[in-house]
Amino acid sequence: MKNKYTYGFLGRLVDRKGINELYTAFDELYHEDTDIRLLMVGSVEKQQIADKDLIAKYNNHPGIIMVGKVPFEEVPVHMALMDCFVLPAWWEGFGNVLIQAAAMGIPIISTHSTGCSNAVSDGYNGVLVKPIKNAKVIKEAMDNMKGNKEEAAVYGDNGIQWARNFEPIIIWQGLEKIYNESENL
């Protein structure tokens, strides 16, 4: 992947993570610029994939590297290869993987959806696109991120700061404060 701009995805390969839209967006970009790559890290859960042919497309695409599931301790090694992290999810409980990417200084593209919009500050550490389930806006954001390296670097630097808001001690202190305030009601 040396000298190739690398987009990355890390998560379960299920429809709701936006993998159909990501494939379409990347494939269109790849036809315009073969010096890009998409690094896909995560497990295939066939029972949850509506389009069974999609994984075959991913596996056979010359610009896509399918890594599969990796142990948790290897996640940073793979994320360090990414120039931009892309999670076009339809919804997330909470985007922990987005916080991981931010903590590593990787600029993020995600969707303005539940969970994702809690983990990414649009215009600060990444870009939130809408509408969801739209490959065109994902492609545009991916192309813009690659073309605006200075802005992407600012997103990455801001992401490191942003991720500190989610350190466990800060979360616990916030929960303790809420608990103490509720006792006084």
Describe what this molecule looks like in 3D.
The protein has eight helices and six strands; from the N terminus they run βαβαβαβαβαβααα. It has helices at 19-32, 52-60, 75-79, 96-103, 116-119, 135-147, 149-163, 168-183, and strands at 5-10, 36-41, 64-68, 84-87, 108-111, 126-129. A six-stranded parallel sheet has the order 3-2-1-4-5-6, sandwiched between helices. Helix 1 links the parallel strand 1 and strand 2. It starts with a strand and ends with a helix.
Give the topology, please.
Elements: E1 5-10, H1 19-32, E2 36-41, H2 52-60, E3 64-68, H3 75-79, E4 84-87, H4 96-103, E5 108-111, H5 116-119, E6 126-129, H6 135-147, H7 149-163, H8 168-183
Parallel strand pairs: 1-2, 1-4, 2-3, 4-5, 5-6
Please name the fourth-level CATH homologous superfamily: Glycogen Phosphorylase B
Which CATH C-level class is it? Answer: Alpha Beta
Which residues form runs of ≥5 with pLDDT under 50?
A: none
Q: How many strand segments?
A: 6
* Main sheet attributes: strand count, strand direction, barrel closure: 6 strands, parallel
- The name of the CATH topology is Rossmann fold
Q: In summary, what is this structure?
A:
By secondary structure, the protein is an alpha/beta fold.
